[in-house]
Amino acid sequence: MCVSEEFGPRFFGCLLNLWLLPLVCGVGLILNIGCLIVFFSTRGHPLVPALIFLSFCDCLQLFFSFLVLFLPALHDFSQSTPYSTLGQLAYLSTGLLSPLLLAFNCASIWTICFISIQRHRAILRPLSSISSPSKPFKPLLFISAMALSFNGCKWAEFRWFWSHDPTNSSDYQYILAHEPSDLAKNENYHRVLDNLLYPLLVYLVPLLLLSVLNFRILTNISNRRVSFDHKSRFAQERRSVTLLISIVTMFFLCHTGGLAYRFVDQEKYNNSELFVLLKDIINLLFNVYSFTNPLLYFVFTRQFRDLRTMWNSHFASPASRSESYAITGAKPGSSKAQRHLSMPSLYRTPCVSGKLLP
Fold this sequence. Notes:
The chain crosses the membrane at residues 19-40, 47-71, 91-118, 139-162, 196-219, 240-261, 281-300. This protein is 65% helix and 4% strand.
């Protein structure tokens, strides 16, 4: 299919979307499912519930990326009509699933922030974390609800309608299509949501929060004078903080392009094939982050052995066990392709005129 494309940005976009993107999503999905299996069989580490939630978000992000990015790209490069079955699937996947894709992205970074806050509290204020919460997934469910609420307005950016194929005389040849709604064309809406709230809540504030908290944790651990019996315990703490920092670093390396894209004049560059290729690269990096997370889990937990260690076994006396539970927070024993959607959209979709909506 890519052979028919001229050598240039569109040719590389075809290779990226139809070959590399499915490979990243498929392998990443397998790796995250493997992490979920390990995490569900390991309950002693206080990071495990949040890591389960992170892997679950990554799985759904990779799955929805395949539907939202691959199917419209396949429709685009196969040059199918918008009234084909593939065209209908492209409309449904982009219009219904793209807000969910953004929501799981938000839930992932906010969960990392939650983990860092919990670790900071447990290490710097151990007496406040003697007992772990009885429902560790409750705050994670709240994060998911907030992420869905924050991105729910994206569904309002579509105006759905039934479109009849003008080349077909049959009265039954209709597809359910969509186009940008009045809200999607509102400049004030995009200025507030895409240029202010989204960069602040999903990028800048989390970056500042994570940098400060993890720096304080590392500083506290480095300055503590501990006995020989406790050194392995603090080595685990260092690795857990390094894991968090690595995840955050990969997130911002892979998502900085998406942040910059929101401040670009879409109408000026949307017809450029090179600009379309850059959006494809941004979408790929978006999924590389979820692909690399399981590898980071594997490396920085000593092949998951840290998660299998019951930390109370490192301490001999009841007093030192109390300190251990306080620090860990655990209880004892527990065509020129143009993209559709709103102005900052990165996704493809067909339109009834045979071109992709801006």
